[in-house]
Amino acid sequence: MDKIANPAPGFQRNPDKIITVEPYCGTVTVRAGDTVIASSAKAKVLTEAPYPAAFYIPFADIDFDKLSRTDHSTHCPYKGDASYWSVLPAGEAGKDAMWAYRQPFDEMNDIRDHGAFYASKVSIEAKPD
């Protein structure tokens, strides 16, 4: 077995923890009002109990011109350090509405270069194929 270069300390402490990342079969669209922020047929669904499932959208399918990087960050012992962006067309409600793990731990490498959005701050529509 290959040695993991950047293992997640959370999984080392809690090897029974389950986080799944699977392709979403359909299109995910993120809007602020009528403005499309992201739309992708290549989104992934991350499932981690007890949290609601989150759609991770490839950076290539996100309109970064409508976002502004913030200084906010958080740390997850399973995924790594998250960076945040505000959704500009959403105004104050869009503050820190998108997060991404730019350098996730090895176990979560499937979400590298993908962003996820808070459903409470933007509209997320998932249409299955």
What keyword list fits this structure?
7-stranded antiparallel β-sheet; 3-stranded antiparallel β-sheet; 129 residues; mainly beta
Strand and helix order: HEEEEEEEEEE
Q: Which ranges are low-confidence, i.e. pLDDT below 50, for 5 or more consecutive residues? A: none
Fraction in beta strands: 35-45%
Gap from first CA to last CA: 36 Å
Helix content: under 10%
Counting DSSP H or I runs of 4 or more residues, the number of helices is: 1
Instruction: Output the radius of gyration.
Output: 15 Å
Structural class: mainly beta
Described by the principal axes of the CA atoms, the overall outline is: globular
The number of distinct β-strands equals 10
Largest sheet: 7 strands, antiparallel
Oligomerization state: single chain
How are the strands ordered across the major sheet? 1-4-5-9-8-7-6
Mean pLDDT: 95
List the helices and strands and how they pair.
Elements: H1 9-13, E1 20-23, E2 26-32, E3 35-40, E4 44-47, E5 54-58, E6 67-76, E7 80-87, E8 98-100, E9 114-117, E10 123-128
Antiparallel strand pairs: 1-4, 2-3, 2-10, 4-5, 5-9, 6-7, 7-8, 8-9
